[in-house]
Structure formats: structure tokens, C-alpha cells
Amino acid sequence: VCKEEGIVPLQLLKWGLNKFCRNADDSSSVPKLQKKEYRDYLLTRQEWELIDLIAKFAPVKDALEAGLAKLQKWHCAMGCSNIYFICLVLDPKIKTAYTSNKWDPDQHAKGMIDLENTVG
Asked: What is the arithmetic mean of pLDDT over 13-21?
């Protein structure tokens, strides 16, 4: 029905949930909640935007998770070796500006010690 009418399913869900939450408290055919109202469950615009974003990326969720796992693997590999830090510091465009501003201070200090031990 949604495709035939040109309605995005998530928009229909949003419309239905909002309508239900706004009207259920005043209806005699809907059971009353204890110490709460159905209006309390209305989602904010930001919450709906988050749901829209989740729905948008759901088809590529597995690929995103695989990419994040690969990033984690290489990030860990860099942490186990001092070569990455040394390469950054030896790059004339980067030197220590990047690591001192963007890295965790302890990691930067460790990199500096490793550099000194390697070069010095």
C-alpha cells in the first residue's frame, strides 16, 4: 500500500505512532497506563531524525561494521608499533603538530619516547 500511494513506510509509521500517542489517552477503548500517559511516548523531532538515519543506513549496516572492524584492526596494528608515529613526525608537512593536537596526550608522549629511543 505504501508504494502504491507513494508513502515512505517510515513516514506512515511516524504518522500512526504520533496520532496514537496524541489520542490514546482520551479514548475509552484504549487501556489506561499506570502512572504514565501515552503522550509521554511521543518521539521528538531529533529522535525521528535518528530513526530516519538508522533506516537510511540499514541496508549497508554489514558493510559499515566490516569497515569499522578493519579500521580497528589497523588502528591496533599502529598502536603495537612505533613506526606510524615516527613516519608522521618525519613527514615535513606534519611533524609533531598532528600528534600533539589530535592524539591522546599519553600516546603522544609514548611516541616521543619511542622516537628518541629509535633515533637518539
From this structure: 91
Nearest to 39 by CA among 28, 51, 26: 26
Q: Which residue has the cell 608522521?
A: 88
Q: Could you please report the per-residue DSSP string of 29-98?
A: SSPPPSS--GGGGPPPHHHHHHHHHHHHHGGGHHHHHHHHHHHHHHHHHHHT-SHHHHHHHHSTTTTTHH
Give the CA angle between residues 101, 102, 106 to the nearest 5°: 85
C-alpha cell at 56: 537510511
Q: How far apart are CA 20 and CA 43, in angstroms?
A: 12
- The mean pLDDT value for 26-46 works out to 94
Residue 118 burial (CB count, 10 A): 11
